[in-house]
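Re: that chain you flagged

S.,

Sorry for the slow reply, it's been a week of failed gels. I finally had a moment to sit down with the sequence you sent. For the record, here it is as I used it:
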Amino acid sequence: MTTPVTTNNWIYCLNKFRFYSQNKQNRFVPDRDFTLKSYIDAIQNNTKTQPDTALCISMPLKHTLCEHYGTTKNTHPIRNYLDNLLNEARLVSELIPKRCTISYLHWNNNIHQLLDDAEMTELMFHLNKHFSLMPEGEGRYVIELLYGHIADSTIALIKGLGFTHICLETPTFESISEARVFIDQMALMRSYGFETINTSLAVDKCHDEITKHRQLDFLIASQPDSICLLDSGGRGNNAASNNWQDSCLSKNLNDQLIKSGYNQKGCCKFSNSDKTDKWHIHDLIGMGLSANSLIDNILTRNASQLDQYIKCIRQEQLPFQYAGYLIPQQK
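Prediction finished late last night. Pasting the structure tokens below so you have them in one place:
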């Protein structure tokens, strides 16, 4: 039985693409009468009138297939999933006219850990084959990376694949030497000419206030274009926390960033570059297991069980699971 999507997590995930303020309250209203045909009609109706759209690729296999990423890399389950994902891309592309370009592409954070270089290249090849991706320099192509799983060769690869922006989940530095290695790798990334390199810091980890300020100092020293202060679940850290101690710490961290030349943009994002400003996206089509799509005010979700996802693809149908509407909350 599917749990209705009423959690902030899903809405926040989608808000990353439309750049709603985290303080803007929205309510998800499920629609049990919304069918696969309704989803197909929504995609086709919108892409008839919109000159461009966005794609997001999801590969949330950490908990589905393995406990550790390395144990399944280059093995049959990942290959099987990738084959079905490529078929889903083909099915989605049949609904989108070629004149409708892809101006925004987002790869979620598990992909570079699960796929090898050849498979990442294969995935991008098929996306270019099935969709009209904007040329490099015109579109915004974003990849999420997890520091600690990035080889120097990976940086060269993602640049060669056409990615223009990096969103980097940064570590908790345990020593100055670890921080220096991170700063050196950030410098290497910048040398490849990515438009922006954006970082995040989980501020609710179990460290005292002095340690958290030192962590932020290290991150600032690496010169990212933006820094997001998040909790460990990936949600924006809000200075209006109900916990007085957390609220004071959040304000102090905010002040530390502002004094270092970062401007606050939203409740948790700080930037020293105009390049990180909002990128308007009208619609977002998600592909992959548990992927979310946002079309006008319609929110949809793909199948969340791997066997069901694969079954749908093999039957030549989109793995739609359920949908509803995102309604602004009345003040």
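What I noticed first: The CA atoms of residues 5 and 192 lie 40 Å apart.

Talk soon,
D.
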